[in-house]
UniProtKB/TrEMBL annotation:
It is a multi-pass membrane protein. GO terms for cellular component: plasma membrane. Belongs to the XK family. This is XK-related protein. It comes from Zootermopsis nevadensis (Dampwood termite).
Length: 424
């Protein structure tokens, strides 16, 4: 059976067919030994993804309930908006991908009971959870087939596990930038607003936990996505657990720095913060749309525009390279802007606020924001220096033929990936 992978040179996609490899090469011959086995590392990552998603949504839902009970209509409306809107977006994308996969003739049709389960989970707005559970199920089937000595089925189930994990990771990325990041800024802004005025609130502990869960959720979603992209490609070195830990620390500190800076500004001048984020979003979305950053995730120009809007939101908080190639100078430019915006927000807050009102908050916020940014840079440098996967595998480097770049992709599970992320 011929397999296809997407390789990007500049912005053009090409197909590489592996059926022209040397004679008598089986399906298993180009699979890296030890890399295609579902193990404890995959299980831990999937369980962490489910847990962080559940805690993030759970604490925010709990907060919305408390705001409603206490009659805080504005806080309740904002919290619910950032709960429902992201859930609807991710559900729409997930349903669309199920329909696309259902129309793919090379894939087996799911039974009726599975479609019923999908509809129920989608109605409950739990699209990522369903895909994570499917990935776990495929992984368990892979283990069972391996123990039974059925190597072909083991590899087939492992590939399906990677496909579901990749889809779930991309959905989770959307959800975090639409839900977790705004919720973290909102709840931290409320905490700072009341702390700056020495107001006592009975739900401050819940707010603090909600902020922590949102920050962890964003950091893990970025780490999980980068890991899943590499595992979905047979020609890429994998992100091992040491690199994943280092990347998680990098994204966590970067997110803390950004969220804290925006929250401090929003606690005094929410309109300013909203204007800055809106301008940032519009500029980034327009650039993505006008640059025609095509991905196989989108089947139409309308979906491309929606995809650009969603991805544009990500650039408020984190950088995701839009195309293949070196990212050194892109990261340098992004973090330079990142530093200037954060510093500007911090300076405005320091000037407009007063250390006499709450000296612990005043000096603690400044130190935390600066230290978090410096730690983010340190973890990023350590990751690229010692823990970054060592380039691409040469397994498919011989006897390949490049065919028509306009042909459809033959491996649906890889079609929903940002091609640029293969360099991370």
């Amino acid at each position: 059976m011929a397999e296809c992978v997407v390789v990007n040179f500049s912005s053009d996609s090409v197909r590489i067919r592996t059926d022209d490899l040397s004679n008598n090469v089986s399906e298993e011959s180009h699979i890296q030994p030890g890399r295609s086995v579902f193990g404890i590392y995959h299980i831990i990552c999937l369980l962490l993804s489910i847990t962080t998603f559940a805690l993030d949504v759970g604490f925010d839902s709990w907060l919305a309930y408390f705001y409603y009970r206490q009659g805080q209509g504005a806080y309740f409306a904002l919290t619910v908006t950032f709960l429902i809107f992201p859930a609807l977006i991710t559900t729409a994308f997930s349903l669309r991908w199920y329909i696309i996969d259902g129309d793919e003739p090379t894939l087996s049709k799911p039974p009726l009971w599975k479609w019923v389960l999908r509809i129920i989970m989608l109605l409950l707005q739990l699209a990522p959870i369903l895909r994570y559970c499917d990935a776990l199920a495929y992984g368990i089937h892979s283990i069972t087939a391996g123990k039974a000595g059925n190597r072909i089925r083991q590899q087939k189930m492992y590939r399906k596990m990677l496909d579901e994990d990749s889809d779930a990771a991309l959905l989770r990325l959307f959800h975090c930038f639409l839900h977790a990041a705004p919720q973290a800024i909102l709840q931290l802004m409320i905490l700072i607003f009341h702390a700056n005025r020495s107001d006592e609130s009975s739900i401050q502990a819940i707010q603090a936990w909600a902020v922590i869960c949102s920050l962890v959720s964003v950091a893990w979603s970025l780490t999980s996505y980068h890991r899943s992209v590499r595992y979905a490609r047979d020609d890429k070195e994998k992100l091992e657990w040491q690199g994943a830990v280092m990347q998680f620390c990098w994204h966590l500190m970067s997110t803390v720095s950004r969220v804290l800076a925006l929250s401090l500004l929003a606690s005094l001048f929410p309109a300013w913060m909203g204007t800055v984020c809106l301008c940032h979003w519009c500029v980034m979305s327009a650039w993505l749309a006008l640059a025609h950053q095509h991905t196989a995730v989108c089947a139409s120009r309308c979906e491309e525009l929606l995809f650009s809007l969603v991805l544009g939101l990500a650039y408020i908080l984190a950088f995701i390279a839009p195309r293949d190639g070196p990212t050194r100078y892109s990261y340098l430019a992004y973090y330079l802007v990142f530093f200037m915006e954060n510093t500007g927000a911090l300076v405005v807050w320091c000037v407009a606020s007063s250390s006499a009102q709450n000296p612990v908050l005043y000096y603690g916020a400044v130190v935390a924001q600066v230290v978090a940014f410096l730690l983010a840079l340190a973890f990023m440098l350590l990751y690229y220096r010692y823990f970054h996967p060592s380039g691409t595998s040469t397994t498919l480097s011989k006897s390949i033929s490049i065919t028509d770049p306009d042909m459809d992709l033959a491996k649906p599970g890889q079609s929903k990936q940002f091609s640029s992320q293969q360099t991370l």
